[in-house]
Each structure stands twice: as structure tokens, then as C-alpha cells.
Amino acid sequence: MDQQLIEKVMKQVSDELAATKTASASASSTAPACDACCGDSVGLTEFVGTAIGDTIGLVIASVDPMLTDVMKLGNYRSIGIIGGRTGAGPQIMAVDEAVKATNTQVISVELPRDTKGGAGHGSLIIIGAEDVSDARRAVEIALNVLPKYFGDVYGNEAGHLEFQYTARASYCLEKAMGATRGRAWGMTCAGPAAIGAILADTAVKAANVEVIGYSSPGNGGTSYSNECILTFTGDSGAVRQAVRAAIEVGKKLLGSLGGEPESTTTPYI
Fold first, then answer.
1. Which of 36, 73, 93, 262 could form a disulfide with 49 if both were Cys (CB 3.0 to 4.6 A apart)?
2. Average pLDDT over residues 202-214
3. CA pair distance 85, 9, nearest whole angstrom
4. Residue 205: enclosing H or E segment and its boundaries?
5. Quick one: 151-268 is in which CATH superfamily?
């Protein structure tokens, strides 16, 4: 009897442990994509969270009056800040979604040269809001959707490829990339720049699209990074087709310099 009782107790404990692990895994799967969405984690009210690409999200409830002019904030006093060491397109796309969903406005987008990103850029994006809660919400949304837009960023030891697409551009893409709000928008980018030049030609030959801008190391728009970037618009299907054609060619060309280029997260285009 004693042995039977021991076995019964052990089985009950085992079942309870299994249930605990299942509940824990379920909670993890529904957790937000950003690493932290609460200022308590670092003890600062300005801190919102972090995400892929060494990206940090911050807010300032009331910017000091001595800084509003030099930061070119206009009438805004509450701001959200998204900054990353690696990636520029993904952060711009993420903020584009964030301003669609909140009562906020993109104040500025800067793309600094950052050697941690290899041949590419970092990013600094300022979001203005009448209320700090709106700025915080926009930053949270951007951090949570950011991993999606790293999905079509591919890399190997020789360089990187970046592709972006949206069926409906909004304020951040308008300010940063010259997109037309409400229209489809696409981008091809590669470092080394030589590959980027081929991708630009591939994209415009693959579908009926309209070029918005072309940037190369000495031609503006790249902070002298070793990249060529093409942005374009058109019918949603045509823009997607152009981007997909460039992805196929880009992976082959970059692969010739090293290993097979791998997606940073999960491709979405």
C-alpha cells in the first residue's frame, strides 16, 4: 500500500509540473515582440522597450523648451523616439504602421551611417504627439511589428539585402522615402552597392512601376554607405512583383560572395 501511495503522489506531482510548463509556453507565445514594454524594467519612465536590430524605443512627456527649436519639433512637446544600430527600412516600415494606428505625426527621420550594420545604416525617428500616451503607444506598436519588417532583410558574411513592400504607404514612408500616401510602395537595397544597382534594374524591368528615387554612395540618400537603394510605386500587384524579382536575383548575387543569404526573421513579401 505504501508503495502504491508513493507512486500515486509522484504521478500527481509529475502531472502538475507538465501543466505548469504548458501554461508557461503558452504565455511566452503570446508575449509582445519587443523585449520590454514597461519603464519599470530599467527604472526610467522614458524607457518603452527594445527590439531587433539593437532598436530602442523611448518617450519624452514634455521636451524642455530650450530644445524644441533646435530639435525642430514644431508645436509638439511630447515625443516618441525609435533608434536602431542596424536597419533603417524595417524601422521606417514599423513606424509607418504605428502612425496609422495612433494620433501621432512623424517629425523627422534620419539615417546615420553605422558600422555595426555592415554596409548599411542605423536609424533615428522622432514621433510627435499632443499627449505622451499617444507617443508611447506608437513606440510600442513600432517595436512589436518591427521583427516582421526584418523578414526580408537577408545577409551573409559579405553583405546584406533589404526589401520592403506595402500596399498602402503612410506618413513615415512619405517623409522618409517620398512615397505617396495611400499608394503601394516598394524598395530594393543591397550592400555592396554593385549588387544594389543590378537589383534596381531588375525591379523596373520586372513590372510596370514608377521610380520614386535612386540612391547610391555618392548620389545622396545613403550617408555614403556602400549601398544602392531604389524606391518605387505603382499598382500593388506590380510593386510586389518587382520586389519579388529583385529578391530572387539578389540572393543569387550575394550568395556568390559567401554563404547563402539568410532571412533575419521570417520573409513576409
1. 36
2. 98
3. 53
4. helix 193-206
5. BMC (bacterial microcompartment) domain (3.30.70.1710)
Residue 265 dihedral angles phi and psi, to the nearest 5°: -130, -105
Task: Map grid coordinates 510586389 to a residue.
Answer: 240
**Could you say which architecture CATH assigns to the domain 45-147?**
2-Layer Sandwich (3.30)
Cβ-based neighbours of 165, under 8 Å, separated by 6 or more: 152, 184, 185, 186, 187, 239, 240, 243, 269
C-alpha cell at position 119: 554596409
Average pLDDT taken over every residue of the chain: 89
The C-alpha cell of 83 is what?
Answer: 533608434
Q: Which amino acid is at 120?
A: G
Q: Supply the DSSP string of 163-178, one letter for each residue.
A: EEEESS--HHHHHHH-
> Whose CA is closest to 189, among 147, 233, 167, 221?
221
Q: What is the pLDDT of residues 103-153, one digit of tens each?
A: 999 999 999 988 787 788 999 999 999 999 999 999 999 999 999 999 999
Beta strands in the chain (DSSP E): 47-51, 55-60, 78-84, 104-110, 123-129, 153-156, 159-166, 184-191, 209-215, 228-234, 262-263
* Confidence category of residue 29, pLDDT binned at 50, 70, 90: very low
Mean pLDDT, residues 253-265 taken together: 97
Q: Which residues pair with 233 in a beta bridge?
A: 185, 210
What's residue 78's pLDDT? Answer: 98
Cis check: omega of the bond before 267, within 30 degrees of 0: no
Query: Taking 50 as the threshold, does the pLDDT of residue 9 lie above it?
Result: no
Altogether, the residues listed in the chain come to a count of 269
Residues of the chain with CATH 3.30.70.1710: 45-147, 151-268
Cα separation, 86 vs 246, in Å, equals: 22
